[in-house]
Amino acid sequence: VSNDAENGAHAETANLSLALEPNESSADAGDSESSTQKDILPVIGGRVTVPFRNKRHTGIVMALSEEAEVDAAKIKPIDTVLDAAPIFSEPEMALLQWASHYYHEPIGNVMQTALPKRIRQGESLTVEGVPAWRLTETGQTAESQIASNATQQEALFKALSAQTDAVTAEQLNSVLSGWRLPMKRFIEKGWVEEIEKSCLHALPSREKLARPGHILNTEQQAAVDQVLAQDGFSAHLLEGVTGSGKTEVYLGLIEAIIAQGKQVLVLVPEIGLTPQTVKRFEAYLQAPVAVMHSGLNDKERHCAWSLVKTHQVSVLLGTRSAIFTPFDNLGLCIMDEEHDLSFKQQDGFRYSARDCLVRRAQLEKVPVVLGSATPSLETLYNAESGRYHWLKLTRRAGTASLPTVGLLDVRGVPQEEGVSETLKAQMHAHLQGGGQVLLFLNRRGYAPVLMCHDCGWQAACPSCDANMTYHHQVGELRCHHCGHQEKAPSLCPNCGSGEFVKVGQGTERLEQAVAAWFPGYRVLRVDRDTTRNKGQMMALTEQASQGEADILIGTQMLAKGHHFPKVTLVGLLDIDQGLFSCDFRAAERMAQLVVQVSGRAGRAEQAGEVLIQTHHPEHPLLKVLVEQGYGAFAEQALQGRRLAELPPFQYQILLRAESVDPQSGWTFLNDVKNRLNFAKMQLLRSHFSVAESADEAPELEVFGPVSAPMLRRQGRFRYQLLLQSAQRGWLHTWLAQVESELYTSPQAKKVRWSLDVDPQEM
Ligand code: ADP
Ligand code: ZN
Ligand code: ZN
Fold first, then answer.
1. Which of 6, 167, 505, 721 stands the most exposed, by the fewest C-beta atoms within 10 Å?
2. Cis omega (within 30 of 0) on the bond before 648?
3. Which residues place a Cβ less than 5 A from the ion ligand 2?
4. Nearest C-alpha to atom 19 of ligand 1 is from which residue?
5. What pLDDT, on a 0 to 100 scale, did the predictor assign at position 196?
6. Mean pLDDT of 218-224
7. 30: pLDDT strictly greater than 50
8. Counting atoms of ligand 1 from 1, which one is nearest the CA of 220?
């Protein structure tokens, strides 16, 4: 939950039991529907339109009652009932209610997340189709008329003629960027016609794909059998080393569940949802799969949503926000790369899709499988304590073997642009052997600091306590925290000198250096700057996996799930900061990244090698990771957490507050802290005052307020207050005692605050 003091909208949404969406167009959209007759009775979980202030809104009926607490004359009647049947089933409604309660988020905001925009605006649950384009008869012979320098037209023509069927925007986006303008030209010339494609036929599955002839190996089959042997709800951790064939296990399970006439929800990290993945699912299952991710437009999202809800497809492959999609008959939940941070929403309604998924499976009484090569410590702890079944895949599937991993001690070793001589020599050897090389550097841009050579001035962001990153190609300084950007100065604003030093390495700089060292080899950079446009990421990874590049340079975008069969050497350049961060989760994330990036090596016949450059080869966590693997690392890290009384042994809720002036946020949190301390006293007194129960009183702690790791960001001063307890129930009860005051206190009006339950980042 969060407030927004600026427009005062908060208290309003919090008190409504209807989830509302302003909707002027609902009259038109609704009246064409047969289901909008006034004689339909409202149902819980169905939509209605209601007058609110001077507008009509679409709402979801949350409860029905014969009596009202307010004067009956003040209650306005419902305008129209849009749905004769509930949109959400009982367990789905229970999930949404639970999420609202657990994350202290108004139900209206939860509903807003759960429903596609078009549904919120009152449109029909089912969709006609999406636009698609195909060559006309004239168009089919028009290629020779395209000017030789019109490369975009040429590319579009190729894409259109490669398909026997009309192509949708989503399909084009995955192969081309900037196709809309040439498309317009083609339509004007009469070469292309636009048609409407039904949602089902607009799904990515274009060609009939051959089913791969894999037979599950013993470990994979055992995992499938174990999950299927359970009745009702069961939770499973599928811990499989990179390349062990976790996806094959998911597919085996999905096949079995579909055969029972049920559906499956599969969640993957945003970055893992590539056309490759979709194709692999469709080829194995020999059936279309619905896809849901942030790149869809409103219509495509509506399409996918309604295909799932009406059971026209059996599988939904989606990212975080797909978690609340209603199903007709859900039979299994799967989350791949469950440790991935993208499953946690970091603003607005800050839910964890992983925890919601496990909860959903519980409410639906179906199995849930969480898969990862590097499980989060939370999930590992659940597996260790027996709450989750623990399934393991210990070997790579097929003929591939795990890469050898070595630490490269770079202390005192000559380096060029952050690359040691040893690593460079290894790169050479692998390239000459015909292998691909992947260099990992988790910092985009050219250099993280631009400094004046004469006076030491550094380019800092005007609105954050941070330096701006220098981007060479565009000649700009960019703040990676707030998005501020400006032209790089040609003269120092402090002393007028024209000499600057670019301090530190970014991927852009590395790309430049590597291209100079290895002339004749193709270098491909994958980071947020090279994948800004829709489809670029997919195009680049496709290129990389097809072997159309020799050296790949990337940030963590390259680390996840991709299958690059030709990569034989992976070099990690700068992971040391993960060892010394103030965030207690930094080491866990560093280890996950190292293992995941390393996992890109040697995924086919050729063996892989991983080299990690470090200035701290003796660091105990790093040593354990490299010598004994992630399992041993996690074991040690968990012990550390237990001793330090940190999650997963404790539960946390973070209250953040920020203000334009440096005082208000701090004062607000101090005030809340006082209220919390008072509430704790009352709570303990009323429940644990008798002598026999005094020992059972929960420990409820509040830490802070402290300033956020970066105090000033986007022009605001940020502070935080941490609530912690080993007893989750009591922690939430405690917070609930002061929650209403967060909305009403005079201090709250001056700040932006937000609550983060089980925060992943401090
Ligand atoms: P993970 O997701 O665990 O990293 P994948 O599911 O991507 O691994 O599988 C890695 C590779 O091994 C893929 O190319 C896959 O086709 C192949 N593979 C998986 N299982 C088998 C099997 N039983 N027999 C042959 N090849 C397999
Ligand atoms: Zn200067
Ligand atoms: Zn900034």
1. 6
2. yes
3. 452, 454-455, 457, 492, 494-495, 497
4. 245
5. 80
6. 96
7. no
8. 23
What pLDDT score does 12 carry?
A: 34
Quick: pLDDT tens for 412-421.
888 899 999 9
Q: Which atom of ligand 1 is nearest to the CA of 247?
A: 6
Distance (angstroms) between ligand 2 centre and the Cα of 493 equals 7
Q: What is the CA radius of gyration of the chain?
A: 28
**Ligand 3 midpoint to CA 446 (Å):** 17
> 43-81 burial by CB neighbour count: b if 16+ within 10 A, else e?
bebbbbbbebeeebbbbbbbeeeeeeeeeeeeeeebbbb
Q: Is the ipTM of this complex over 0.90?
A: yes
First to last CA, the chain: 16
Best of 239, 247, 249, 402 for a ligand 1 pocket test (most atoms within 8 Å of beta carbon):
247
Tell whether pTM > 0.90: no
- Give the CA distances from residue 34 to residues 84, 117, 249, 561, in Å, rounded to whole numbers and listed in that order: 10, 21, 44, 45
What integer pLDDT is reported at residue 641 of this predicted model? 95
For 324, the token pair is 């609340």
User: Which protein residue's CA is at the shortest distance from atom 16 of ligand 1?
Assistant: 245
Q: Which atom of ligand 1 is nearest to the CA of 599?
A: 4
Ligand 1 centroid to Cα of residue 563, in Å, is 10
Question: Within 190-274, where are the H helices?
Answer: 218-228, 246-259
Least confidently predicted of 144-158, 197-211, 385-399: 197-211
Average pLDDT, the chain: 88
pLDDT at 359: 98
Q: For position 581, what pLDDT does the model report?
A: 80
Distance of alpha carbon 680 from alpha carbon 689, whole angstroms: 12
- Token readout for 709 is 């790791």
